[in-house]
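Researcher: I'm preparing a figure for a lab meeting and need a structural model of a single chain. I don't have an experimental structure, so a prediction will have to do for now. The sequence is pasted below. Please return the structure as tokens so I can convert it later.
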Amino acid sequence: MADMPRPDRPPIGLVLARTAKAVTRAFDARLVEAGGSLPIWLVLLSLRTRRLGTQRELAEAIGIQGASLSHHLNPMENDGLPTRRRDPANRRVHVGELTPSGEAMFDRLRAAAVTHDERLQTGLTGADVERLAELLDRMRSNVADNGSPSRSPAGAIAGGDSTPTEGR
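Model: Understood. Here is the structure written out token by token.
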């Protein structure tokens, strides 16, 4: 078997994975310093910004199963962050809302998320950040579903989510 030439740089997927891991660790640490965690942030963010009512909607919004959501919601409710009550129109459905303590925690975690995002963007221009977001969207699309990119006739990636998010 012939020797393969050594690449000049590591594969981009490896660079991306290492970067994502470092960014995630730094974000997690920032949230812990503020008294929270990533699951708490995602739940509070979803309740605050999307006004999701049911646990099913909330679980879908943060990308977890209903049982996993209960695992996070129960201690959060015990800490007085959200409340759950039965929907009067459908007694089988629980509606979640932030309490004043939940609002205060949300504000602390939002400040931590904003600080983290500012740190991530240090040394980057607005155009750099926009281009990076486009490239990351393209990379995500390249590996979505069947692994082949979905491109429009003009060569742009189709189906990308351009909704800005808070956090990372």
